[in-house]
Amino acid sequence: MGCGMGKAAASLGKKREREHISVPAATAMRAALLIQRWYRQYVARLEMRRRCTWNIFQSIEYAGEQDQIKLYNFFGYLMEHFTPASSERSLISHIFRENDVVHDTEWERYFCYKSIEVSHGYHGPHLTFPMTFCEASKLVEAFKHKQLLHSRYVLQLLGEAWKLLRILPNINHVSTCHSKEITICGDLHGQLEDLLLVFYKNGLPSSEKPYVFNGDFVDRGKSSMEILLILFAFLLVYPNGVHLNRGNHEDHIVNLRYGFTKEVLGKYRVHGKKILKLLQKMFSWLPLATVIDGKVLVVHGGISDTTDLNVIARMERHKYVSALRPPKSSRRSAGGNRRAPCCTEGGEERNHHGTGARAPAPGPGSRHAAQRRSLHSGSAVEEELRQRRQQAGLSQSLQELRRLVSSSSSSDEDDDDADDDGGSDPQPRTPERDEWKQMVDLLWSDPMAQDGCQPNQVRGGGCYWGPDVTEEVLGRHHLQLLIRSHECKQDGYEFCHNRRVLTLFSASNYYEVGSNRGAYVRMGPDLVPHFIQYQSSQTCRTLTLRQSIGRTERSALCALREQLFAHKSDLLGAFQHYDPDNTGVISLKHWASAMEGVLKLGLPWRVLRSQLGTSTQDGMLDYREWIQDLVFSEPKHELSNASILETMYRNHSNLETIFRIIDTDHSGSLSFEEFRQTWKLLSAHLKTEVDDDAIADLALSIDFNKDGSIDINEFMEAFRLVALAVPS
Amino acid sequence: MADDRERAEILVTGVHKRINDAFQVFDHDLNKTVDVREIGAIVRSLGCFPTEAELLDIIDEVEEPNGFICFERFLPTMSKILMENKYRPIPEDTLLKAFEVLDQQKKGHLEPNELTEYMRQGDEPFTQLEMEEMLSSAVEPDSNLIYYKDFVNMMVLDGER
Fold this sequence. Notes:
Chain A is an alpha/beta fold. Helices cover 48% and strands 9% of the residues of chain A.
């Protein structure tokens, strides 16, 4: 009895105890504060990792762009110094071919879709023209279901859009008075899911719902073609509701490297070449900028201190089939010193038209100062190129070269390159070059934090421009805001220059799943931007911060390890330079210097050290062991010559670009001779030499079916790096 | 004496290098300045565990009028912090004990709203975003509970990278 009562009382008492037990407030507060402090530290470390990862991706991306431009400039140089008859020239000359002999009407005949039949086996959408809203939405639905549009309809749609583009002005002028709001999208880069997500959240384009698409619709992603078709379809239905700006990737030379050419040829095996040719022309006819209510400028890259919208409005934009290529007459007059409008030496040109800008402080690009390999300055470069050409077995001798240069230059008045003073002449400024520079600046420039304007050496095109330039240019044109894209931002958008410049990027998960959000902007007559952010993949929304950073990081490190592997020999050489006594170890400081010296990516190597599988003892690193650990799966074919393998890995983008240029009929395969010429061109472009025997071996070993020709895709696949080992 | 001095020098150089490396990650334009809002990440990534208030003190010392922080001013301040081992790390077991304190009933877990209540009060409460992020990694999805011992283990493991 007593017990029972006691028990009940006891349990009641305990219950009461539980109810009233409370941690003294002060103790709880202290504990909470501790946890908060810990957690914030943890998040900061994650942020550090995220930032490093971002830097890796970005520097590899921009180094690739720079590489591309260099390759292209090199070809241009070759073009100007070879006799028309030489075989090397004919291999690459078609990318420089002039179009002006043939008129647009004749091209229209060439691009005609009428002869193409649609077989009964085709299950994709059938389009009828003129394009209507229904037809355009039908197209969107079809692409949602992963259907492919028949080449007949592709050519028909593109042909109609081309006619429209040709009557559009260089600068679209848009007003918000007709509709309530206008929507602006940034880079899409072939990521159809993102475009569909924007349409889902915001609605399809129409006169009441106008859109501006700010360039870079293609390359990198898998559905560039579908994006273009959707955009052009809606452009046809609502010419006043859809406004397209050209981006630096709306350029057939860039497309050779970054995947769009490959995508089209893969999807349209029979008519791909024709479609590409038509798109090449359409890109050149895309408008360059959009101005909203006379107050907001929307342009893909940005501006420079010389940007003048009046010049831009007046130019014949379609002359610039590729923004990388200078206008025709300038090339002839410049003779041997043709160079890109970017990357001019020093500050000479800058200072002519700087608006009181101070001498550029070591700004962006000083990270990549070492990368500033000028292809352009005077005879030092010419000499180097001459040697390369000789090594490559290309026929031109220096004598012939000089004769060629002096003969072409003597026929032009404004050329001052004929004198062999060995110095670097600044590029003669002609109205054509000025105009060209205006255009390249619009498409390739990036903002920087400090005042001034400098050549954009990281990308190899356009400028870096500062807040003072923004104020001056916007002021001069009575504008209040510049909206641009061109750079990936983690949250999809970012302001800079006192909120006078807005970067807008609409391709989410650009570097990797979870790497960044995309964003678009809605703007009403008050011209205040409202942002909507999104991330396209279902899975990544459920990833925690930690998981998404981890994933992106692994991907970036993988990409970085590929770069390291490709430069193995150079790295070993650089390490050994710091180890004259051959001890096998070097200090961390030397390791970091060697890494940057070889790779020139401007990355914080010491911070990345631990994730690159390095362990140190007493601050010293066993570099031989470290290099050994850069393991990779056996390539499918063994090659006796290790250096050719490395050259190939290091330059696989360049190689692929050259392959595609040489494969003029887009057949996807090269003859042995063409293959040999490819390597010769590549080795002429690089520092390394590749000997004939090694090339012949390589060719034989990858000619799988022994028919004397090499399939491009198989070649690239056979040497793809498969999952480098991850250090634990 | 000379040995000591040499050792001290090596120590200082090491500290300077670490600070430089961390700074460089956030120095976008490579002009030796960072945005003041990044200071928290930099200081913490160097192994310090300051409170928000302590962070503001650091910022007060080094901030330039334009809202940036220059490396020249940051370096001596940060070096001193590291050499003095200010804002020491919280040991793992202390962190665990803190959770145990909050877990009054010694259940071994916390409910999301319990944790939220604690984290969102006090002198330096979590923002909505911080709270959401913490919950997303701390809450075990099936049970909707926070097994804090596991959570602490996970965060410590991540930290050792």
